[in-house]
Write a structure and sequence with these properties.
5 strands; 7 helices; mainly alpha; three-stranded antiparallel β-sheet; 150 residues
């Protein structure tokens, strides 16, 4: 199975940030570590928080889910930068967002020049345009374009 690069993982870590305790993300979900979503079923497990090693283990598990989703939903060859950008996007928004998006259709049609504009449509949370998401989508766009000729 294909995996995100170290640069892709660093991109996710940079934008997620590390929190040893449960906090509410901008979209209103309980979260811990590097963007790991807390569910009612596992809430008790995280009441005492996590250290950075535990957070990285959770991140690797969560990223593996995003990697599998990208591999399942994208049917064209991708450069490492393209794969990293799409894994970061999917980690942040979930496989459902990628599955139903015009972004996915553009990638699968190899309309790569249109991908940055599609990424920039996903900068809203809770009805607000978030500066952090604008920065993240810009970074994903740069990663996506890094290995292609337009």
């Amino acid at each position: 199975m294909r995996h995100i690069s170290r640069q892709g993982l660093d991109l996710i870590c940079r934008f997620e940030g590390f929190s040893p305790i449960i906090y509410m993300c901008p979209a209103g979900y309980p979260t811990i570590g590097y963007g790991h979503l807390i569910t009612e079923a596992n809430k008790e497990q995280f009441l005492d928080g996590v250290d950075e090693d535990e957070a990285l283990d959770l991140l690797r598990q969560d990223v593996a889910v995003a990697e599998r989703a990208v591999l399942r939903l994208i049917s064209v060859p991708l450069t490492q930068g393209q794969f990293d950008a799409l894994v970061s996007f999917t980690f942040n928004l979930g496989a459902g967002a990628l599955q139903r998006s015009t972004l996915r259709r553009k990638v699968n049609r190899e309309e790569h020049a249109d991908v940055p504009a599609e990424l920039m449509k996903w900068v809203w949370a809770g009805g607000r345009k978030l500066k952090g998401l604008v920065k993240r989508r810009n970074a994903e766009s740069l990663a996506y374009k890094a290995n292609i000729t337009i």
